[in-house]
Amino acid sequence: MSKEEEPLSPMARVFQLPGMDYCAVTIFGFKTKINPQVLRDALKHNVYKHPRFSSILSDNGAKWIETEVNVEDHVIVPYIDQEEIGEDGDVFVDDYISSLTRNLPDRSRPLWDIHILNVKTSDAEAVSVIRTHHT
């Protein structure tokens, strides 16, 4: 086994079983709008320090393999029509997060993404949603 490959832990192997599509979703609220470019720049300098964020699964799902990370692919900033949402920012965020749990990440790249929702909610001016898949 090369230095760039690492076997999956027993628990990670469980998450490879059919029907065990597990992802963790973490939500952060911010007092100000989020500048996506600042986040992308920070990730470009730090993502390689975290092996699970810079590795993909092998074809058989048994090993982690180091890979190049295109941060642009992992930072998603959807178009949000604030006028259409109006005062329903909380509902929009809840619906958005719900849709993330129904759509699995692309397994051809590291299994994480960050979604920037510059929408006002009852608790925040903007929300960041981090989705990781059994990392």
From TrEMBL:
GO CC annotations, alphabetized: plasma membrane
InterPro entries membership: O-acyltransferase_WSD1-like (IPR045034)
A GO molecular-function descriptor: O-acyltransferase activity
Biological process terms in GO annotation: triglyceride biosynthetic process
PANTHER family: O-ACYLTRANSFERASE (WSD1-LIKE) FAMILY PROTEIN, WAX ESTER SYNTHASE_DIACYLGLYCEROL ACYLTRANSFERASE 10-RELATED
Protein name: Diacylglycerol O-acyltransferase
